[in-house]
Amino acid sequence: MIVVRNVFQAKPGRANELARAMAENLRPPATAGGPRKPSAWRVLTDLSGPFDTVVLEAEAESLAEWEQAMREMFASAEFQEVMARGADLVAGGHRTLYTLEAHG
């Protein structure tokens, strides 16, 4: 199992708007046949640390599964539309990937 952590620095005062857009995009499509989404995900906003930070964490069974899901998501017109809207909300960010060794 891997955990992917995407850390975004939203433009000042726009973190909640960015978090809502991310959560909206990650909900399962209403119809079958849409792009595959990560099986487990969560969107977090800062309580401490740098202001206007939004974190998107997702889990996948393997790096190959994650890569396939990303290919499908980025090929989706719906995802591209959400990304275009969200691009105006983001000032920067980074991604880290982890192997999940244990959890409770």
Topology:
Layout: E1 2-10, H1 15-26, E2 40-45, E3 53-60, H2 63-75, H3 77-87, E4 90-99
Antiparallel strand pairs: 1-3, 1-4, 2-3
Helix pairs in contact: 1-3
Describe the structure.
The protein has 104 residues and is of the alpha+beta class. The chain has one domain (2-99): Alpha-Beta Plaits, CATH 3.30.70.100. It has helices at residues 15-26, 63-75, 77-87, and strands at residues 2-10, 40-45, 53-60, 90-99. Strands 2-3-1-4 form a 4-stranded antiparallel β-sheet. Strand 2 (40-45) and strand 3 (53-60) form a beta hairpin. Helix 1 (15-26) packs antiparallel against helix 3 (77-87). The chain starts with a strand and ends in a 5-residue tail after the last strand. The model has no long low-confidence stretch (mean pLDDT 87).
Overall 3D geometry? globular
Low-confidence stretches: none
Kindly report the CATH topology.
Alpha-Beta Plaits
Nearest-integer average pLDDT: 87
Features:
four-stranded antiparallel β-sheet, 104 residues, alpha+beta, 3 helices
In summary, what is this structure?
The chain is an alpha+beta fold. It has helices spanning 15-26, 63-75, 77-87, and strands at residues 2-10, 40-45, 53-60, 90-99. Helix 1 packs antiparallel against helix 3.
